[in-house]
Amino acid sequence: MKSKVWKKIVCTALIGATCVSSLFALGSKSVEAATPKDTVSVEIFKLEKGSGADITNTGEVQTTTGHNVFSPSKGAVGFTLYDATSWIAVKASTTVDKLTTTQLNSYIDQLITLANTHKTGTNGAYNDGTFSPTMGIKKVEQINALSYPNGSVTFNNVDNKNRVYIALETKKPAVVTEASVPLVFALPMTKVDGTGFLDAVKLYAKNEISTEKTKVLKKTGVALDGTEIDLPNASFAIYKGTPGSGTKVSSGIKTSASGEISMDKAYAQGTYYLVEESVPDPYLVSPKALNDANNELRFKIDNSGYVFLDKTGAATSKTVMSLKDYAKPGGEKDSNEAGKAKEIGSEVEYTATIDVPQDVADWKTEAGKLAALKFLDTPSNGLTYKRQSLVVKDGATTLKVGTDYHFEYQGTKDVNEGFYINLFDDLTGKVINPALAGKKLTLTYSMTVTKDAVVESAVKNNWEIKYNNGPENETSKNIPNKPVVVTTGGHKFKKVGDDGTTPLPGAKFIVSQGTNYFEGYDTDGVTPKWTTTKANAFKFETTATGLFEVKGFAEGTYTLEEVEAPTDYQLAKETIDFTIIAPTFNADGSLKTP
């Protein structure tokens, strides 16, 4: 039996053009003298729609200039070939070889309409599971991957005798905006020039690739008080593979003004993760976004699109990843005696506050790089920590060493000893009390003014925060708020004669404040002692230059009284009040006697 020769169908499938029917049949020239082979191969080439000219499917090899071969990085593509000959025969109540071209074309349109009712969603692939059971439709073969470098699928040994076939794209990635139109063709097919039958049929299917972007990350900055904002200008790198051993693909990707990162929907398929490179002040790089096993910004791109993963690599139901960066720890320090003169041996009361970041429980620790959140008070010479005076509170609750924080002395006892507390264990790097996250802690403690304090010179103690949350190397942060300066006061005096210039040695004076008399200095030679017994008062004696000085006194008003006059002079009849307030030590108080 000779094969039926149909005329070319008017509407053929075009690359880059819209087509309802996609039937390819014999040319209009007679080739009845030729004999087609029993079977042929059918190769379908998958192209990405480009700027090239439209391609008309003729069954022969075409020029595809301007259209790229579909990239395997964009996902898997598959086609299924169906024999629809029996379906048409049932519809027509006759065999296809008895149909005219016009009649066959009508049934082809119905076949395409039927196929389009079996798409997965509006733009999805065709559903073989529902289409192939259709009565009269016979699945010939399903191929779920393209072969490269041609980017094609080849169906071999296809029956070439009076058959009508439909090829459907039954597998496509989400990046393809719409599956290629059904390819319907009748066999046998002739060469375009009508000189014979085709032994190998070549067809071309095209897809449009999405130019849209997919939001993959929402970035938030959390202030110390818990206020959240969209965080722009945080920088990320994209890695491919498994966190800790992946390969960097790109870097310097910044979050937008709304704190978001979006990626091309057509990004190459694979498994990826984001690593945070830097964040704007005052925030810290998150320990959840490092290049290690704890990374939580994992995702993959497959045929379904972007899929966000948990730390085990399992798919989640997330529609976008999220990450919070928390503000650096902060605090203040103050003293109600700041700037006042304090005598040697007196105490200075300090109050400090510590703002604990809300994510301290998530800070990363590892051997050689322990997480830490330390608060250090380092006094200069002239101040030393009064032991056992520190009280740390969370609101009204007094915190305990070991249960809530670690404590260590530093410096030299009784000279310039300070201390530090650490909310993390010094040995393990584990946070001691996670419940302190996000809290404002209050520290009260005392420092003692020592003999090393230089009169009317600033005696400072430095309040510092040191932290290491894993991504950050140990960082020091001085607390500049309300710096505390303690000064010790003193006064110089000069005894002169009636002429106002002659210095008078040998005069003796005592100093009192109310009913207390200065008794002298302690064994250290600088710490003032006081007595209520006037007879025990220390006597200052003028030198050969008529000078003497008092120092190490606290700010206040004192009384100077002469108790022994210089030789050949009589006692001053009146006492002299003087005030110690910086700076007074370098000023002479000239005393005259009659």
UniProtKB/TrEMBL annotation:
<feature type="domain" description="SpaA-like prealbumin fold">
    <location>
        <begin position="492"/>
        <end position="580"/>
    </location>
</feature>
<keyword id="KW-0732">Signal</keyword>
<protein>
    <submittedName>
        <fullName>Fimbrial isopeptide formation D2 domain-containing protein</fullName>
    </submittedName>
</protein>
<feature type="signal peptide">
    <location>
        <begin position="1"/>
        <end position="33"/>
    </location>
</feature>
<dbReference type="Pfam" id="PF16555">
    <property type="entry name" value="GramPos_pilinD1"/>
</dbReference>
<dbReference type="InterPro" id="IPR041033">
    <property type="entry name" value="SpaA_PFL_dom_1"/>
</dbReference>
<feature type="domain" description="Sgo0707-like N2">
    <location>
        <begin position="340"/>
        <end position="463"/>
    </location>
</feature>
<dbReference type="Pfam" id="PF20623">
    <property type="entry name" value="Sgo0707_N2"/>
</dbReference>
<dbReference type="Pfam" id="PF17802">
    <property type="entry name" value="SpaA"/>
</dbReference>
<dbReference type="InterPro" id="IPR026466">
    <property type="entry name" value="Fim_isopep_form_D2_dom"/>
</dbReference>
<dbReference type="InterPro" id="IPR013783">
    <property type="entry name" value="Ig-like_fold"/>
</dbReference>
<feature type="domain" description="Gram-positive pilin subunit D1 N-terminal">
    <location>
        <begin position="38"/>
        <end position="208"/>
    </location>
</feature>
<dbReference type="InterPro" id="IPR046473">
    <property type="entry name" value="Sgo0707-like_N2"/>
</dbReference>
<dbReference type="InterPro" id="IPR008966">
    <property type="entry name" value="Adhesion_dom_sf"/>
</dbReference>
<dbReference type="InterPro" id="IPR032364">
    <property type="entry name" value="GramPos_pilinD1_N"/>
</dbReference>
<feature type="domain" description="SpaA-like prealbumin fold">
    <location>
        <begin position="228"/>
        <end position="288"/>
    </location>
</feature>
